[in-house]
From TrEMBL:
InterPro entries: Phage_holin_4_2. The keyword Membrane applies. It comes from the Bacteria. Keywords: Membrane, Transmembrane, Transmembrane helix. Signal peptide: none annotated. This is Putative membrane protein. The chain crosses the membrane at residues 35-56, 63-83, 89-111. The keyword Transmembrane helix applies.
Amino acid sequence: MRRLVLLWFISAFALMVVTQIVPGFHIDDGWSALKAAFIIALVNGTIGLFVAIATLPLSILTLGLFLIIVNALMLQLSAWIVEGFAIDGFWWAVAGSIVLSATNMLLRWLLVPKTRRPPET
């Protein structure tokens, strides 16, 4: 449970970082960032999963680049749901998607403790 909360806070902080880098990304405050991080995770885990599976052939054809478009659409949907979180347009969502993914990856690499796996037998 502690790990899940840590990942949630990391995602919210990553959203705040993206608002500083991408001009078309707007979050009012930390509370809005926490709500947005939760909704983004919920949207990506439900609707985003189905869209990614449905567009798998196109993703394979574009060597995975179409997933950036899918992520941008899920970000826009999340911004539409969460009050205090706004994206100015589709291309800002694409840019935000790329920066958010990179920021999340870096922060998780730096802050999340590695889980130890038992040796395989």
